[in-house]
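Title: Comparing notes on inverse folding

I've been comparing how different people in this forum approach sequence design from structure. To keep things fair, I'm posting one structure and asking everyone to reply with a full sequence. Here's the target:
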């Protein structure tokens, strides 16, 4: 099967014919239909996020189950699925307390470049090629853990379903699961890419009052306003706008950019006693500076949220239901779509950052 292989950091992808071994116990083979291109993939291309090479990247995908390995009971050939990059074990202390994104089994193995048993199903001319985030969606087919397969309704379009596999769940979950935004409250979202725009849509769904988007790109600010932001400003105007619109700061902040200094700026934008949820992942060795005395006196909550702190098998079908009912315009995130051969162009699109979500069409 054809896949885009990354052999070295900061080099173009090469399209290669790979061998894909059949699914083992508790594994599933999926014929992919669409994959999103995510900032986390780019951080792996640059080497900022460590994951072994050569590898087939991509972790935001949807498709149809092609075959199942021994013991698989939750999906069958023909089922439409979104792929979750956190195949939670369901048995550890985090899973049993409902915090699946912290799973003791899946989370530590996320960047190991293998499936859960520590081996790979991908080979190129007999030599092993690594997986990425258990999924490797820049390919025609993939083998993934059964726990990564989230069954969805057949009428959900694959490009939207693919984006539910990462950006949409991350942004919506940050607002609904982690911040727990209340009706009438104020919210500021730093970064209006796929994740930030998803957060804005979820905030509107939750009944937030003032929703302020902060992004340097005018094109993204325009989309943010269409999707539910009440105001959209550039980073240099953010301080003044927040004072004018919220007085002492927003009730909730979402930091989705991962840019240097962004967490400190987002911290300042939240009112005393407010909650800041950090979603954008900065380079591995980046540190965050917060004012020490104010951290105590102002009692702000600063928390991370991985993958929208989601429970994939309930949250992902729920988000697609809301989309199909016309209550969450998730299709507005589907941007330029390229064939697998043009994957380098898709990443150039991502870096230029003017549009919404870039996708790879794998049909
Ligand atoms: Zn992602
Ligand atoms: Zn677990």
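Reply #1:
Here's my take.
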């Amino acid at each position: 099967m054809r896949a885009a292989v990354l052999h070295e950091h900061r080099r173009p992808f090469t399209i290669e014919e790979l061998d894909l071994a059949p699914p083992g116990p508790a594994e599933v083979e999926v014929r992919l239909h669409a994959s999103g291109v995510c900032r986390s993939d780019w951080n792996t291309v640059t080497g900022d996020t460590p994951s072994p090479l050569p590898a087939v990247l991509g972790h935001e995908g949807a498709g149809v189950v092609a075959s199942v390995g021994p013991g698989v009971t939750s999906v069958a050939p023909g089922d439409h699925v979104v792929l979750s990059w956190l195949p939670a074990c369901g048995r550890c202390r985090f899973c049993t307390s409902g915090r699946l994104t912290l799973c003791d089994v899946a989370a530590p193995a996320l960047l190991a470049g293998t499936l859960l048993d520590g081996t790979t199903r991908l080979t190129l001319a007999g030599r092993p090629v690594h997986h990425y985030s258990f999924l490797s969606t820049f390919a025609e087919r993939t083998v993934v853990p059964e726990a990564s397969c989230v069954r969805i309704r057949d009428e959900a379009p694959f490009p939207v379903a693919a984006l539910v596999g990462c950006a949409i769940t991350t942004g919506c979950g940050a607002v609904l699961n982690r911040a727990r935004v209340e009706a009438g409250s104020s919210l500021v979202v730093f970064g209006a890419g796929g994740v930030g725009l998803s957060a804005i849509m979820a905030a509107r769904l939750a009944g937030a009052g003032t929703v302020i988007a902060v992004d340097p790109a005018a094109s993204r600010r325009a989309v943010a306003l269409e999707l539910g932001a009440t105001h959209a400003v550039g980073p240099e105007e953010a301080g003044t706008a927040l004072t004018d619109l919220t007085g002492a700061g927003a009730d909730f902040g979402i930091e989705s950019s991962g840019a240097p200094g962004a967490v400190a700026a987002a911290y300042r934008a939240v009112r005393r006693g407010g909650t800041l949820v950090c979603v954008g992942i900065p380079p591995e060795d980046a540190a965050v500076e917060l004012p020490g005395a104010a951290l105590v006196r102002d009692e702000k909550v600063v928390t991370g949220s991985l993958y929208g702190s989601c429970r994939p098998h309930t949250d992902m079908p729920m988000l697609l239901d809301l989309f199909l009912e016309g209550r969450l315009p998730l299709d507005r995130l589907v941007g330029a779509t390229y064939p697998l051969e043009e994957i380098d162009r898709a990443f150039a699109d991502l870096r230029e950052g003017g549009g919404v979500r870039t996708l790879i069409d794998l049909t």
